[in-house]
Design brief:
The complex is a heterodimer of chains A (272) and B (271). By secondary structure, chain A is mainly α. Chain A contains 14 helices and no strands. In chain A, helix 4 runs parallel beside helix 8 and helix 13 runs antiparallel to helix 14. The mean pLDDT of chain A is 88. Chain B is built from eleven helices and no strands. Classes of the chains: A mainly alpha (272), B mainly alpha (271). Chains A and B meet through helix 1, helix 2, helix 4, helix 5 and helix 6 of A and helix 1, helix 3, helix 4, helix 5 and helix 6 of B.
Chain lengths: 272, 271
């Protein structure tokens, strides 16, 4: 194999890639730097500075959500990876199953739960606690929505590297006198760093760019960068040029954060 | 880790994941439209679901787009993976890096960038937003997953297999379809299933590329969440949930049986 013909098999895809991946991204850049009449401008990029507070809020909420997913997901993945194989399969199935219900509906169900006269308050009311009026329509609710929706994205890559950690490595560390905390931080964390990197990326990227979760759970006063971009393309404040500029800024932030984190991940690897 | 702590921890996380779904399913049997007051048990929403034109047509659209886009993405992606596999190092790295873009890029950016492209198509040659734009967009975000699941299988494949087939008289096409395809089939199937799943569940990219004429189910649901979600949608999700649960249980049983069989065979061999 490896003849002329087999190499040609990639050519339809390469044409596809050029039209549907490269050209659209060039269009975003092009729109970001032009006016409605197609003249070059940096005004759109300049206007994005007005959205710095929104950008910071989006980054902050995404960082918190990612951290919570890591804190919740790390022990869970490790516990699962040490179980009997048949139990591992069953638990993974249980973790993936909720993803088969559309995320909008699951998020909507949280609205039902968190509302002032919602189910959580009704339940607590049975014990004479509450009602709590401010569980919905705030940043905490947005973080809850992100953690809820993206936790499986953290657990699956973590699990897939942790399940390869040989039990004897952990036993060896324990025999050599490491206590439980030392085993986790000196053995398990370094060996699962690639899973941590993948998991963090898979949670952080959708979190920072979400636009519907924030609208549903944040109540409209906590717009994130995704909401602002959406409004420029399909909402009331139609302006694809500004929208493209904001999309470009978002893309650059995501790339920067990820390459920084990647660097950090690589150093960890070398240190081990 | 201490056993009881692990069990409690797993149960808490599962509770967190399943409480909203439980609520959703329970309220699909509620008599009133209320989403917080239980007023009695009924199957009405399940019957009304099948008479709800909007939901049924959205469901049909979702299935059409998912099937077309995942089949086409699988064909395009498998051919691409084979071609890329035999490329030289440098072009291979470039193509694979570009292929990675739709996977790593925020969905909203994939969505708006394709929307800009289709706008230009529609200005230039009267292209209409609808099924075609949806299918093109879905193929675009699905192909990378197919490529990334077929490539490892190609790498695992013994390269001499193909040479052997050629030596034994296969022409290039026969060698490909009779030897290479069966070897990489598991990768093709898992790529196809991933594509199908992502396509059915996609909201963000569809939202930007569907235009106004064609609605898929996630778009219909999103529109409903702005006002009030009708319990028929809860009923539909309950049905989907039960079907998937059934499939997964059957799969687990089959896997378990296969594992047992394998264990038996291995024992037989070692005797």
């Amino acid at each position: 194999m490896g003849s002329f013909k087999t190499k040609l098999m990639a050519s339809p895809y390469i044409i596809w890639m050029a039209i549907f991946i490269i050209v659209p991204l060039c269009l975003v850049i092009g729109f970001a730097f032009t006016t409605k009449d197609g003249k070059f401008t940096i005004e759109n990029i300049a206007i994005t500075t007005e959205y710095v507070p929104v950008l910071l809020r989006s980054m902050w909420l995404a960082v918190i959500s990612t951290a919570i997913c890591l804190l919740l997901g790390f022990p869970l993945s490790f516990i699962i990876s040490r179980l009997m194989p048949n139990k591992q399969g069953m638990l993974l199935t249980l973790l993936i199953l909720p993803m088969w219900i559309n995320f909008l509906l699951r998020t909507y169900a949280w609205m039902t739960l968190l509302e002032s006269n919602g189910l959580i308050n009704k339940f607590l009311g049975l014990f004479g606690i509450g009602p709590f009026d401010n569980m919905l329509n705030n940043q905490g609710a947005i973080v809850l929505g992100m953690v809820y929706n993206y936790l499986p994205f953290m657990i699956l890559p973590l699990y897939s590297v942790m399940t390869k950690i040989d039990e004897s490595v952990i036993e060896a560390a324990q025999d050599l006198g490491a206590n439980y905390i030392k085993v986790i931080f000196k053995v398990v964390v370094p060996l699962s760093i690639q899973g941590i990197y993948t998991g963090v990326t898979m949670v952080f990227v959708p979190s920072i760019s979400t636009f519907i979760i924030s609208r549903m759970l944040g109540g409209g006063s906590n717009d994130l960068i995704g909401d602002i971009i959406e409004q420029q393309f399909l909402g009331n404040s139609y302006n694809p040029h500004l929208g493209s500029a904001l999309a470009l800024v978002l893309m650059v932030i995501v790339l920067l954060v990820m390459s920084l984190f990647n660097q950090f991940g690589n150093e960890e690897n070398i240190a081990v | 880790m201490k056993k009881p702590f692990s069990k409690i921890y797993i149960s808490l996380i599962l509770m967190f994941l399943y409480i909203p779904i439980f609520v959703l399913i329970v309220f699909s049997f509620n008599v009133s439209k209320s989403r917080a007051n239980w007023t009695g048990f009924t199957f009405d929403w399940y019957i009304k679901l099948f008479h709800n034109r909007q939901i049924m047509s959205a469901l049909l659209n979702t299935v059409i787009v998912a099937i077309f886009s995942s089949v086409l993405a699988t064909l395009l992606g498998t051919a691409a993976a084979v071609g890329i596999h035999f490329m030289k190092k440098a072009p291979k790295a470039i193509v694979m890096n570009i292929t990675y873009i739709p996977i790593i890029n925020p969905e909203i950016i994939t969505g708006v960038s394709l929307m800009l492209l289709f706008r230009i198509f529609s200005d230039a040659f009267g292209f209409k937003f609808g099924f075609l734009s949806l299918i093109l967009a879905h193929i675009t975000f699905n192909v990378p997953y197919v490529i990334y699941s077929v490539m490892p299988k190609l790498r695992q494949m013994n390269p001499y297999l193909l040479e052997a087939a050629r030596d034994l008289g296969c022409n290039e096409r026969q060698a490909f379809f009779k030897v290479a395809v069966p070897e990489i089939l598991p990768g093709i199937i898992s790529g196809f299933l991933m594509a199908l799943t992502f396509s059915i569940d996609d909201f963000v990219v569809s939202y930007f590329t569907s235009g106004t004429s064609v609605e898929t189910l996630p778009i219909t649901i999103a529109a409903m969440t702005r006002k009030k979600v009708s319990p028929e949608i809860n009923a539909l999700s309950a049905i989907i949930f039960i079907v998937v649960l059934g499939i997964l249980i059957i799969k687990n049983i089959i896997d378990g049986k296969n594992a047992k069989k394998e264990a038996k065979n291995n024992r037989a061999v070692s005797f």
